[in-house]
Amino acid sequence: MNEFIELIQNHRSIRHFEDRPLTDEQIRAIVESAQSAATSSFVQAYTIIGVKDKAKKKKLAQLSGNEYVENNGHLLIFCADLHRHELIAEMENVDIYPALETTESFMVAIIDAALAAQNAALAAESLGLGICYIGGLRNNLEEVSKILHIPSLVVPVFAMTIGYPLNQSSKKPRLPFEHIYHEDEYQSDSSLLKKQLEDYNKIIQQYYKERTNGKRDDTWTSQMAAKFKVPTRTYMKDFVTKQGFNKK
Amino acid sequence: MNEFIELIQNHRSIRHFEDRPLTDEQIRAIVESAQSAATSSFVQAYTIIGVKDKAKKKKLAQLSGNEYVENNGHLLIFCADLHRHELIAEMENVDIYPALETTESFMVAIIDAALAAQNAALAAESLGLGICYIGGLRNNLEEVSKILHIPSLVVPVFAMTIGYPLNQSSKKPRLPFEHIYHEDEYQSDSSLLKKQLEDYNKIIQQYYKERTNGKRDDTWTSQMAAKFKVPTRTYMKDFVTKQGFNKK
Q1: What is the average pLDDT across A194-204?
Q2: In the predicted model, what is the mean pLDDT of residues A198-204?
Q3: Is residue B51, in this structure, part of any structural domain at all?
Q4: Any idea what the Cα angle at residue A12 is, between residues A119 and B38, rounded to 5°?
Q5: Taking CA atoms, which of A24, B4, B9, B94 is between 20 and 30 Å from B148?
Q6: ipTM for the complex?
Q7: Measured between CB atoms, which of B10, B52, B190 is closest to A184?
Q8: What is the CATH number of the domain that holds B49?
Q9: How far is CA B219 from CA B195, B205, B208, in A?
Q10: Are A8 and B123 a contacting pair at CB < 8 A?
C-alpha cells in the first residue's frame, strides 16, 4: 500500500463545504487531471461545465433536489458529448450521424465522461478538497439543459460539488471483495452470492447502528429493494434519444 | 501541483508488458481501490472479472482484435451489473424489473463501472504498473459473454490490461483546456469551437510528425471523421436490451 492508494481508498462523499471558492489554478489542475484520463479511441467525448453563477447554481440545486449543489467551492457538470463531432462532420464534410446515434457511441461518451470525472475527484481530494457526485442532476435534464444551453448530442450525466470540507464523514463499507471480484468467469452460484449479500447486510446494519446510536439499522438489500421498487427518471430514454443518442 | 496530480496527468496507455503476473496482493489493492470509488445511490452496480486462464485470455484477445489482451500481468473485465439486484428482488420479494430496465439504470451501471475502473487504473499506475483500456472487448459481446458466463442484467463494458511496462509511450496532447471546460453554460459559439479544433489539429499533426519521423501527419478531426464514417458495433442496442438493460 502506498499513499496514493491510501488516498483512493480513503474516499468518502463530502456534502458540506466552507463558503470559500476554489481558485482558477485549482480548477485548472482538476480539469487538466480529468483530461488526462484514458478516452475511447481518443474520442474525448465529454465536456465539463464549471458553474460559478450563483443564480444558476441555486436553480440547479432546486432541480437536483440537493442544497449542496448551491453551497460549495465549485460546481462541475460532466456531460457526455459528441456535439463537437457534429462540428467535425461539417469541417470534414462527412456524414457521421449514423455512427453518433448508436448505443455504442452513447456508451463511449458516458464512459469517457465518467473516467474524466473520477480523475477530477481524485485530483481534488489530493488537494485537500472534498467532493460529492450528484446524480440528482438527472432528475430533470430538460430544465438543466435549458439553463446550461446544452446543444444536440450532449447529455449532462452528473454534477460534482467540490470544496473545503466543513466536516468529515465516515467511510461506508463496500460489498465484500469476493462478491465484486470474480475469477475467470462470472460467479454463477446464486446461493453463494446471496449468502455474501446476507453477510454484507450485517456489516451495513452495524455501520448504521454505530453512526446513528442505534436509531437506524436497515440492511443494504432492503435499501436497494426500496430504491428500485419504483422506476425513477423514466423520461431518460426519450431525453437521450431526443438529444441524438442511443437511437439504434 | 502535487505528486498525485503528477501521477494522474502522467497517464499514457501501455500496450507491451513483461511476462510477469501480478501478485494476489497487487490485484487486491487494485480491486479494493476500484471499490472505493463513489457509486450512484450506493448501488455498487458493477462486477470485475479477473482473467488468469490462458486459454480464455487468448480467446478474448482474438475477439477483441487485440494481442495485448493475451500478454499482460493481469486482465480485468469491467461489467455494468444489476444482476445482484435481481437476486435482491428474490431475497426481498419485490418486483424491481421495471426499474432495472430503464435507460437511467443502464447509465448508472455504466457510470459505476467506469468510476471503479479509473480508480483501478490509478492504483495500478501508482504501483509502477501500466494499463490500457480495451474497448475492443465490445467488438463481440455475445461471444465474450459466453466465455465469461455472463448472466442477465450484466454487460461487459471494457477490459483493462495491467502489467509491468516493457516500454514507455509518449503522452498524447489532449483537446485545449478551453475547448473541454466551459464556464456557466455550454459554449455555443460554433465558429470559436471550430477554430479551437483547427488549432488542436496543428498540435496533433506535430505530435505524429515527431513520433514517426514525418511519416504520419494526420489531424484529429480527420481521424475522428474516419472513425465515425461507418457505424461500428451496431449490434449493441439489441445486445444490451437482450441483457435486460436500456429497454424503456
Answers
A1: 98
A2: 98
A3: yes
A4: 55
A5: B94
A6: 0.98
A7: B52
A8: 3.40.109.10
A9: 14, 5, 9
A10: yes
Task: Identify the residue among B103, B122, B131, B221 best suited for mutation to test binding to A, counting A beta carbons within 10 A and taking the highest.
Answer: B103
**HSE (CB half, 13 Å, CA atoms) of A110?**
26
Residues 6+ apart with CB under 8 A from B12: B168, B169, B170, B171, B172
Domain with A48, as residue range(s), is 3-170+231-243
Number of structural domains found in chain A:
2
Show the cell assigned to A14. Answer: 463530502
- A83 and A147 belong to one structural domain: yes
Q: Check B175 against A87: CB less than 8 A apart.
A: no
Burial class (CB in 10 A: 0-12, 13-18, 19+), A78: buried
Q: Which helix (H) or strand (E) covers residue A112, if one does?
A: helix A103-126
Q: Are the beta carbons of A31 and B91 separated by less than 8 Å?
A: no
pLDDT exceeds cutoff 90 at A217: no
Q: Give φ, ψ of A157 to 5 degrees.
A: -100, -35
The type of residue at A225 is: A
pLDDT reported for residue A1: 79
Give the end of a domain, one of B131, B149, B170. Answer: B170
